[in-house]
Each structure stands twice: as C-alpha cells, then as structure tokens.
Specification:
Strand order of the largest sheet: 7-6-8-9-10-12-14-13
Distance between the termini: 34 Å
Radius of gyration: 25 Å
Strand content: 15-25%
Structural class: alpha/beta
Number of strands: 14
Bound molecules: beta-D-fucofuranose
Shape: elongated
Largest sheet: 8 strands, mixed
Helix content: 25-40%
Length: 370
C-alpha cells in the first residue's frame, strides 16, 4: 500500500517532468494534447495516469494452482480478463502445476519484482507462514482466493474470498439423505473420490460427507481416496473401486472432472449411472460447470453442488477498496446453488438455513458459460 502510493507519486512526478520538458522544447501544444495521446501505446509520456509503463497500471502477481480442472480454467480466465491492461492492470501470472513449492517460488519472484499486490490461490492449506511473512515484510498485500491458508497469524494475509466448502459438502449430504428417504433406497454403500489432499475444497467436501455418515447409521463409507481433482485420476480411482467392490450405491466425486472420469470407468465396466433405481449407481459432483450440468440433465450426475470460479471481479473489488484506503472484509464467502436431475428433493436445510435445489434444464445449461 505504502509502496504503491509512493510509486504513484513517483510516476506522477516523472510524467510531470516529461510534460514540462516537452513544453520547454517549444512543442507549443504538447501540454494541451497531453491527455489525448495517452492511449497511443505509451510512446509519448503524458501526465495522464492511464497506460504507459507501470506509471498507471497496478501490478498484480497471481500464483494459480494449476490447470487441473474445468473449474480452474474458468477461474484463470476470470482473473486474466479482469486484470487486463485495458482495465489498468499488469498481471504476472504463474501456473504452479499443483505444486506448493512452485507457488512459493512464484511468490518470491513477485516480491522481488515489487508487485503492488500478490494474489494466491493456494494448492493446500498448510505451509505458508514463511513466504507470507516475506511478503508482509516487503509491505505487499496478499489476497487469498478460492482455497484457504491455515495460518495462526491472520495478519499474514489481507483478505480472502472463496467458497464455503464444508457447507457445499453438508448440502450434498443433506440432499442424499432426503433423496434416499424419498426413494426408499435403504442402506447406502458410498465411495468418496477426494480432491487434492489438504486443499480446502477437499477438506470441506470430505468433512461434509463425514458429517452425513455420522448422522446416518445406514450409510457406509467403503473407501475414500484422492482423485486429485483430475479426470484421469478420477477414472483410475474408480476403476480400482470397481475391481474391489460390486455393491457401490453412491460415488461421491469432489469435483466435476473426477465425476467425468468416474462415469467413464463405470460405463466402460458395463455398469449404469443414474438415479439409484434399476441397479444404477448414483454420482454426486461439485463445481457445476457447463459439462457437469449437461451430465446432470442427462441423468448421469444426480446432484451437482455449485462452486463458483468467477473470482476475478471479487478480487478486483478488494484491490479497489485497498487502493481507496478502505479495509476489505477479512473473509468473504460466495453464495452458491445446488443443481439436480429431478425435483424429488426441492430444498435442503443445513444448520438451520434452507437451500433450494434447481432442476437442470437446457436454459440452465445455456446460462452457464464455463
Ligand atoms: O472444485 C476443482 C478445482 O479449489 C474450488 O479446485 C477449487 C477446486 C474445484 O480443481 O474443480
């Protein structure tokens, strides 16, 4: 913050000096057309604050988890389109390929480059203290997005925006209970294809299911294993489950891409996915991407609990508050929906709050851009 202000003042002074120099050189109208030339790709420096070099642009270093899922692609796209040069930003983007060590290196590079803000989508929750302390010492605000960091000293980051992953899991478990009761499905044997171990999205979604298991004595968890949030791993894990168990009723996938892989494995094994009737296996998913919603409409995924990836504008709102000297909310949760194949369950109640379930139609699918 302090540094950014200093940079702004320095940039203003520089621009002022240039205008003065141009005017002094006798180019009589240099000062008067100062504003209008600023869009000319910064070739002539002007007093205007928009455009050239880093005089006006806010420099944002974004350490992204990777490109493991459709959700992630949509998230990257949202960040890139928000933090564009047109919008007054210079975005330094780093894809960590799902490795925390790469994220730590990226953050150190951002510190060295003296970016104005660091945005971190952390792969896992733990292990961030040292590098976040380095950013703090360098006076660079860190905004955490999507998954959370688990740090004792909350002053190590400025703000966080993302989803309530445990609530997502609890909503899914509440739906399963209501659906199974309505359809008289009896005892349920469940497998959980977990996300990246230690990621908030995995921890919360697994916890939501575990809470459901505690409440429902007729549910049994056969096994839980990570599918790393990818389609390939989801398929591989499901293939191994299919070899071990021939009595699975519910496959709880912790994101859409794992569900796509699991469905492929189930169908390749000559089994059916569906609504639990006629020996079909029920698939649950999270994210509600366009492809995920299509699978709901086609009856392959019974319930898809939404997780919203469009965080670009949300992070920008935080940066704008900081630029204006305001204090953003420390933690902000995004509102999310539930999408189902049919209207057997119209709503669920979690911790005293009711959540409606939306039946997926073509209109719902066409409204989902990612
Ligand atoms: O559900 C999954 C992605 O952290 C919310 O990460 C995100 C999760 C999302 O790979 O698809």
């Amino acid at each position: 913050m302090k540094k950014r202000l200093f940079k702004k003042i320095a940039a203003g002074l520089m621009a002022g000096m240039m205008v003065f120099a141009l005017t002094a050189c006798g180019g009589g109208d240099a000062a008067s057309d100062g504003g209008s030339t600023s869009s000319d790709s910064g070739s002539s420096s002007t007093a205007s604050d928009s455009g050239s070099s880093d005089g006006g642009n806010i420099v944002v270093g974004f350490s992204q988890v990777g490109a493991e899922s459709d959700w992630r692609t949509a998230n990257t796209e949202s960040m890139k389109s928000t933090f564009s040069a047109e919008n007054g930003y210079e975005l330094k983007f780093d894809d960590a390929q799902q490795k925390q060590e790469n994220q730590i290196t990226a953050i150190r590079n951002f510190i060295q480059q003296e970016v104005d803000y660091i945005v971190l989508a952390p792969v896992t929750e733990s292990g961030w203290e040292t590098v976040l302390q380095e950013a703090k010492d360098a006076d660079i605000p860190v905004i955490i997005v999507d998954r959370m960091v688990d740090v004792e000293d909350e002053s190590l980051y400025t703000a966080w925006v993302g989803s309530d992953f445990e609530l997502e899991g609890k909503k899914a478990a509440a739906y399963l209970k209501a659906y199974a009761e309505a359809k008289n499905l009896g005892d349920l044997k469940i497998v959980d294809i977990q996300g990246t171990m230690g990621a908030s999205a995995q921890i919360g979604r697994t916890n939501g299911l575990e809470a459901g298991l505690k409440e429902n004595s007729n549910w049994e968890l056969l096994e839980k294993t990570t599918g790393e949030f990818t389609q390939a791993k989801g398929q591989e894990v499901m293939e191994s489950f299919l070899k071990k168990y021939d009595d699975m009723d519910v496959v709880y996938c912790e994101n859409d891409n794992e569900a796509f892989g699991a469905i492929d494995a189930i169908e390749a094994a000559g089994k059916k996915v569906g609504n639990g009737e006629d020996d079909s296996m029920i698939v649950f998913s999270f994210d509600s991407t366009n492809a995920g919603l299509k699978d709901v409409k086609d009856g392959k995924i019974l319930l898809n609990t939404e997780c919203n990836p469009l965080h670009g504008p949300r992070v920008e709102a935080i940066i704008k508050q900081l630029e204006a000297g305001e204090t953003p909310e420390k933690q902000a949760f995004v509102d999310e929906e539930m999408f189902a194949y049919d209207d057997t369950v119209k709503s669920v109640t979690v911790d005293g709050q009711e959540y409606e379930v939306t039946v997926v139609t073509d209109e719902v699918i066409s409204g989902r851009k990612y």
